[in-house]
Design goal:
about 80 residues, alpha+beta, GMP Synthetase, Chain A, domain 3, three-stranded mixed sheet, 3 helices, globular
């Protein structure tokens, strides 16, 4: 699997989100920014992203996934 595929899968399911993927093979890290995360706990945010990729995790295409998920306001604050 490629990082571009990971990006495409998440963006297709979390409309309006921006996905910044890295990694290759079966190990990836993603930063996802979207209004969809407003009011959610960190665990709920991760569950949303995992849900987008569950099929690939189950079939072994993705072995390790690191997720950072933010609202646009949180992302702007982090990036000054």
């Amino acid at each position: 699997m490629e990082a571009a595929q990971v990006k495409q899968e998440i963006e297709a399911q979390l409309e309006g989100s921006e996905v910044l993927p890295s990694g290759e093979g079966c190990n990836f890290a993603v930063t996802v920014v979207g209004d969809v995360f407003a009011g959610l706990t960190p665990v709920k945010k991760q569950q949303l992203v995992y849900g987008c990729l569950n099929q690939h995790i189950a079939d072994g295409s993705i072995h390790a996934l690191t997720i950072k998920a933010y609202t646009p306001a949180q992302w702007a604050k982090i990036n000054g």
